[in-house]
């Protein structure tokens, strides 16, 4: 069941994200425990619970961009840590890139992912290979853009992004961290997936599933 | 996990509430968004000093709010930096017209959240300067990393910057002396046993009965490497050596020394470490002008200690000795 | 056993040595036989206050040596009361001609050793009076037992007697106010995990992940009974109830409250306990006039806390508020 | 090989005590750990090591009483806790009861044990059945007196005392402590032998063995 990327999709995406983040709270805490400070799952769960509470309470925002902007502001004020500002910026830039469109087409979907990714890089200054969420967002962006230029449907663009993010997250395992808290471990950071890269894959997978997309 | 807590998610709120009741003569707790200010904030004409970061490091930062130290502390969730929507009102609340200094420990999360808050507070008309504390010699300082962490040196920066602000220095002056402390302070830590983050419920790392972690931070993260257990004198040497090397401490240097407990270490052990530090520095011809021995910047109930050394000059010493009245540090007042 | 120590038998000597270096402005350490005095002892014309007991309870007692509190502290081996040959010279060293008060925690060993020392010091011409602290409501007080133990109340006795001595009260006056504090103070403790005595090398008792010990002392001894783990609010109620009952606290009463950490408990948890104590006392109409929250009388690295409540009057409060300058308690000086 | 209870015997007794206390240090700590504060073995080991050091260093005292008096003073100043003053008093009273005799006969041996026992009771105010060292000293005293009046040799008096002390120590196991640190445990103190009663048995056994006595 393929869905248009409209405001309802954006709301579904965010609710689905909250659900999978809650479901994977312990996993994300545990990934962060090994090479960080054991809070990533707790932080995101707190943040996306607040996001859902806001969706439940307020008037539904009128555009996909308005949904994402509300998410950005809520994450910024409830998550804290590194992930709060990074995901906050990502959703804010994503919202900005969508403008006031009521529906997101394939090119706009790819552009949205790039905007999010570029926002994270602008704030966090991490490069590909530093073992951060950038290692999931970057291949996601590239795959989304490739799919969009090849004429994929919007849901297909999101599915491509999600699959690439997932692969990117898995590929962080052997890396030695050079940014974020895991970098303090030096070589001991190798051998574990980066929690932020894994949560990125979850978020993009939620976007895809909210669009009815199939994720491999 | 056994802790004297109720709901793990209420730990910070309830603890700060208790702190506020116990120290109602000194501080005011603002519950939502959560931050703590001096009872008499804002002090007109004085530079305001704000610090904050993840909780779990008590008495840092709330325990250092009061005359001669911080005007506001902003506690995040356990080991999670606070958000801009806490930092911004804390900043405004302590602006007495002379601007506000943010003392930020160098962690990605703290840096990003304080950066955003500073930008927004400036937009609201508050002049903000920031100083970044990065004193942990266990971490490599390079362009290609997140840089050194801020640990024990934060206590010295907060005290000395707070004293300068109390003296009436302007914002640039306070920021400059804070930066001088950052430049002259280095730390190194060791863990004998990990802590357990309340919402995680399991120890942050596992150590065998005969292993210790060298070069740990204050967030329960593992250290740089793991070695076989040693006696206190041996461990102290391992903490001291990299600090002496990094600061190039030499005969005639004068220092401020802190032997800090990570939360679960008895005072008696900290004094055994301090004894060895004193002996070793004495052997190098380095003078300990002042010292702190106790729990000042902790990692929940972690067992272990950290050593912090600041090379001081007369001005810093004078600022150090000036009156301070906070829950955790008090003299002359 | 993992501790920041060298030879387990040198723990007390080395720790006190480090303490002496860190606080050389306040105290003098006399190494053999071991005792600690105020830097300026004896203070002519002032009643001298001596306390002591087994080590492992730091900052008690050495951390309370200084103006407005103790003139001398006499540390025994870990959890072992000191010997007369330490107590006698400590007593003489702080006799400024107005006599000396011994503050003794009620344990057979402490009582016998201080008794002998007092007798011998008297034979040497020093007038000695003694006060016995026995505030632990976990222990049955009866003619047929050793009586209640001295625990947290000791801190209040040392502070208030020390203040009275500093004010210039004579020996009987100081002893009387000390006795009034003893009469009005009660304590109760809980352990979440045991401590390990250095020379024993194994934990003093074993607790399962879901068990706690209620009614513990400060020597790693098991408590009165073992219960399933509860949340902080529930545990706090269990600490408070027997104290309230024993002191017959009622609406309108004014109190001094200490929430004390046993050595391995983070400050954040102590404030969560304090929050509940404040709520419960408020519900009873009992006022908290002053409070202490922190590690004041510990059992090595034991995890847990104790609650101490003293019913105060105006005189005790005035004495409490007067200047005190020790390593672990300081205000007004 | 039965020996006269002369000064040499007193020195042998004390050295043998130091040896068995060191040998049983961990046992005594462990008994005290369960119902006390885990220091009894450490305290006695520290004290008797100091006693031996003094014997090694100084001129040999001239009488059994002089030996025991030196032991008393050394224990008093090195052991601390409850055991220091109690054993200190015991050895002091024992010394006093011997006067300046060069050799201890059977009646004097029994009187010495009674003096020690009465000293402990005078200082510690414990009664039989309170689960303290008094529960070893009291039967030891009675057995010694019975043996002496029945015409036993001095070594036989000591052997009787040692055997009774040992039985008394074993019999403390089911008791509920009413004195000393174990009393804080209330009923939980039952089921474990009292450390001071056990060390008493060791001390009296050393006295007997130093006299060439056989201990059952
Ligand atoms: N400089 C950075 N750039 C991009 N991502 C980063 C950076 N620093 C950290 N991260 C991401 O943030 C994640 C950690 O988030 P979280 O645990 O919530 O914050 P904190 O590290 O403050 O505890 C890491 O797994 C990593 O993916
Ligand atoms: N009042 C008393 N009378 C006789 N013996 C006592 C008394 N109190 C304690 N003891 C003895 O002392 C022993 C404990 O000695 P020790 O552990 O060295 O001292 P502490 O109890 O001070 O730690 C107990 O096992 C008991 O036999
Ligand atoms: Mg984290
Ligand atoms: Mg964090
Ligand atoms: Mg003892
Ligand atoms: Mg004992």
TrEMBL record, chains A, D:
Give yes or no: UniProt keyword Calcium: no
> Pfam families in the record, alphabetically?
Dak2
Q: Which PANTHER family match?
A: TRIOKINASE/FMN CYCLASE, TRIOKINASE_FMN CYCLASE
Mind telling me which residue stretches traverse the membrane in this protein? none
One GO CC annotation: cytosol
Q: Which species does this protein come from?
A: Arthrobacter agilis
Its ancestry begins with: Bacteria, Bacillati, Actinomycetota, Actinomycetes, Micrococcales
* Record protein name field: Dihydroxyacetone kinase subunit L
The gene name on file is dhaL
Report domain DhaL positions: 8-209
List keywords of the entry alphabetically: Kinase, Transferase
Q: Biological process (GO) annotations? A: glycerol catabolic process
Q: Transferase: present as a keyword of the record?
A: yes
- Could you cite one Gene Ontology molecular function of this protein? glycerone kinase activity
Automatic annotation (TrEMBL), chains B, C:
Could you tell me the superkingdom of the organism this chain comes from?
Bacteria
* GO process annotations (BP): glycerol catabolic process
MF (Gene Ontology): glycerone kinase activity; phosphoenolpyruvate-glycerone phosphotransferase activity
State the top-level EC class. transferase
> Gene Ontology cellular component?
cytosol
Transferase found in the keyword field:
yes
Pfam families xrefs: Dak1 (PF02733)
In terms of InterPro entries, this protein maps to:
DhaK_1, DhaK_dom, Dihydroxyacetone_Kinase
Q: Which reaction does it catalyse?
A: dihydroxyacetone + phosphoenolpyruvate = dihydroxyacetone phosphate + pyruvate
- The EC code for this enzyme is 2.7.1.121
Statement: the UniProt record of this protein carries the keyword Phosphoprotein:
no
Q: Sorted alphabetically, which keywords does the UniProt record give?
A: Glycerol metabolism, Kinase, Transferase
This protein's pathway reads: Polyol metabolism; glycerol degradation
**What region holds the DhaK domain?**
7-331
Q: How does it assemble?
A: Homodimer. The dihydroxyacetone kinase complex is composed of a homodimer of DhaM, a homodimer of DhaK and the subunit DhaL.
**What protein is this chain from?**
phosphoenolpyruvate--glycerone phosphotransferase
The lineage, from the top, is: Bacteria, Bacillati, Actinomycetota, Actinomycetes, Micrococcales
